[in-house]
Task: structure prediction
Amino acid sequence: MPLLYCRSCCMKRTQVVAEMRLRFLAVEHFRCIRSAQITFGPGLNVLHGRNDLGKSSLAEAIRAALLLPPTSVDHKPFIPAGTDHVPKVILEFEKGDDCFRITKTFGTGARGTATLEKSRDGQRWHPLASARDVDGKVREMLSWGIPSPGGRRSPHGGAPPRQL
Result:
């Protein structure tokens, strides 16, 4: 088991963690972002820039792709002000020797969609899951110990609250 260290108290903790590396993020109509694409490099990646450019929105898009069901009512803040656009997030990541791509659109009813695809080479993609099955499959695959949407500790299908 990998060892984790809590930065605030430097106490050693043992926990199972699935190692993953973000590869690519594409966002459309997500909060203040009309369209953005980021290719992540190996190691530490830092987003920097002036206030109100969308750095926090990009971080929220990653969180939404990994944790939020596409039809959750929690998607409403993602819709750009004064529009009826459908927020879309594409997140690619590596786990082991495989690449995965999550594509989600956030909205009510048929406007909220999700797909999970897998690739060995990052070029040819094969479907793994769609709709509600995506969130459960991602949680299972990454071994985070977070209950599936609608689970006992995750009421209303929402993602668990962020902890600092």
Summary: Helices lie at 55-67, 133-142.
